């Protein structure tokens, strides 16, 4: 809904490339994107430090959730995320990872690190795919996985997976918009990227974000956050 509204409001035509945050940021560094919407803080900061990015603004947030089979073989329901990951590893319960250098994959790996676990073995499978495909595989294998709440709620294949762990600053999922400077490459449309970065934090765009998903899923999939910092959002989580 955001892209058509932006095109109508600002007169641009947008080519959207849907990839994980890691790939999106790499595209920005190579000058293959005019603007990036990402949710991988460390990778985003590396892009900012590279000298080819303009501004970085908070757009919205949702959260990550741990989902798994109703039977909950590792007994993680209601636990904190790090404790849940420890239990999954201790019991060698099946876990499916995106393994695609996305923002979700980066968060998952940080949780394993915090849990003191190096995930490897037959119980741990990397799909190298997006969130939707990973949820489908997790459901088929009756495995746990880490997902963003929006994709979990909107993916029909995830209905066989139960929500096990959610809430808290540790599972916060903040999205930033980063416009790319023309110095990244001659193909960069700096004016267009800047226009989208400014528009997506405007009141009109934020209203669209704040209502997205309500009609179909009974709740908004994202919380609009223009003008706020990630630290402020985390303090309220």
TrEMBL record:
Short name of one Pfam family: PBP_like_2
Domain PBP: 5-203
SUPFAM superfamilies from the UniProt entry: Periplasmic binding protein-like II (SSF53850)
Name of this protein: Tungstate ABC transporter, substrate-binding protein
